[in-house]
Here is the input.
Amino acid sequence: MAKTLTYAEINQKLKTPAVLLLDVREKSELQTDGKIDSSKNIPVGEVSTALKMSDADFKEKYGFSKPKSSSDIVIHCKAGIRAANAAKVFIDSGYANVQVYPGILDWVENGGVLNK
Here is the structure.
């Protein structure tokens, strides 16, 4: 099971450029609610398929490089449920360094800014 990070822990992690912050909400949610500045997006329903794509197809579809199995990945959504489900898919697919951040509700509650 993936470790769940606190607001303080996610802020510390985001100081490291190598960390992939992955938002698994739907694209429409990003437009209406906004997103954490450095986050990338793969909707939760696409995660399993995305991880099976070639590196080139992944980059073409999502606009960023497919993470390596050793990449430092933090997955979030709005409240944590979808992030936990996506983290399980990553772990089951051989990704070793996956953590969960509960999401944008916690981010905003703690003073974090969302970009629209």
Observations:
- The chain has a mean pLDDT of 96.
- Strands lie at 3-4, 20-23, 40-41, 73-76, 98-101.
- The CA atoms of residues 48 and 89 lie 6 Å apart.
